[in-house]
Amino acid sequence: EALERGAHVLLEKPATVTLEECDALIEAADTRKLTIGVDETIVWDPLIRRARSQLLLGVLGELVHVDVHMAFDLQRGGRLDRILKTPACWERQLPGGPLEDLLPHPLSVVRALTGGLALEHWRSTCTGRLPAEFIDELRLSLAADRTTASVSISLSARPDDFLVTLHGTRASVRIDIQNMLYDCLAPLPGPRAASRGMRVVRSGLRALGQTARNALLIATGQSPTPASPIHLIVAHHAALAKGAPPPCPLAAARTDIAAARAIWPAEHSAAAAASSGRQPATSAASRRERRSTERECAA
After folding, report:
1. d(CA 164, CA 173)
2. Which residue has the higher pLDDT, 121 or 130?
3. pTM here?
4. Given a cut of 90, is residue 268 above it in pLDDT?
């Protein structure tokens, strides 16, 4: 409807459920010479942008591996109860449930840092830690040429967290989005034990300084809260003003939708059953077998 009215669009993630819907939106926007962006909030976080800049400058050398871990406590604030009690809520309409709603966050970060990797292997598990039979753990392996990545999402690990580690041939970077901490780790000269000790001291001092600064800026209203969408929104509107493509176009997010459909086919009914909290009339052994799903993706 917004496109029909001649408006550019910024979509919340996940942008669509199927690739057909995604392609139809892209075609509709192109036909009207309009743009569609996706609110990939964490990609435009200053710490992720800093890591991208250091990659481009060669500070890390060749990128070897990226690891992204996201913990989202589904029981916090009554969110799980709301999902169970509201049949029309967004998470229950997705084949992958709440995990599919969260998946674009880590996948978009991997894409931004690596340029895009292919999904090679995934494993989703219903551990039984949540009151209902939600699939609450997801692990992904991605690769292309000489770079690999791993993604983990947990709906039961506490506290909420978003951690990114980049491993390069010259240095590594550790990013803690929730606590707004950034640490670039490079080898130091001298014996290995002494070098390791100096690295621990330097990392500790950096964390102490950044924590004090972040607390002051947030307390005085001079800095957005962690993972704030304001950075992406400002960049998106700046691009529109210049007549440039959006910083996070829908076409780039298409690979995230493809990954979700590879993990949870659109006709998959397990998420709906999990969201309803129904207990299947099967043995404990068969429930454990059904709850754990693992697959190698075709090359």
Report:
1. 8
2. 121
3. 0.87
4. no
